[in-house]
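User: Once you have settled down, look closely at the record that follows, taking as long as you need, and be ready to discuss the fold:
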Amino acid sequence: MKHLSILNVLLVLALYPLNGQEQHGKTGDVIVIETSMGDMEVLLYDDTPLHRDNMLKLADDGYYNDLIFHRVINNFMIQGGDPHSKGAPRGQRLGTGGPGYTIPAEFKEQHFHKKGALAAARQGDNVNPKKESSGSQFYIVQGQVFNTDQLTMMQSSGHHTPFTPEQIEAYTTVGGTPHLDGSYTVFGEVIVGMEILDSIAAVKTDNYDRPLEDVAFSIRIKE
């Protein structure tokens, strides 16, 4: 199987869950990604139900227990969810594993690749023209900050649909990876632990973007 391709923020108040969700203007199920470098809490969007329900089921089944972030690129994203990564020896190239199914794309203009966005990894367009998502692999966007001129150039060159005011605000403040919009399903966002994302993204990696020291994680549903 071909490898799956994917191409400081305000601190969230410790009074979460209520204040955390209210600050982001969204409500829904929350998962906790417990990593060897600290925990992140991620809100799953209700209007991407196929991805939300799949993530909740896999987390409840323990599918993500003791996996690693097998692909990490600073100023871009961190990727995990390959079941082959559990106990994988150092140097092993990862990224082909999954539960044996894909998920239909759920693209929503209001959900885009701002910093902290949770999105589904997938195989490339040449073998996956419908842009269906991996059944388990995901990435969390770190990205970088853009200025309005850069966004205008991206839009005028046809590499992005017209940016919404919300997208412009996000990409010019907290940053992200706008070139991935419309190509990968975004189905959640980090609401607690953005500093953990930055710490993981900064680790040293090998030639395959795998951290030299494994960053292990498990996922559970927040009660």
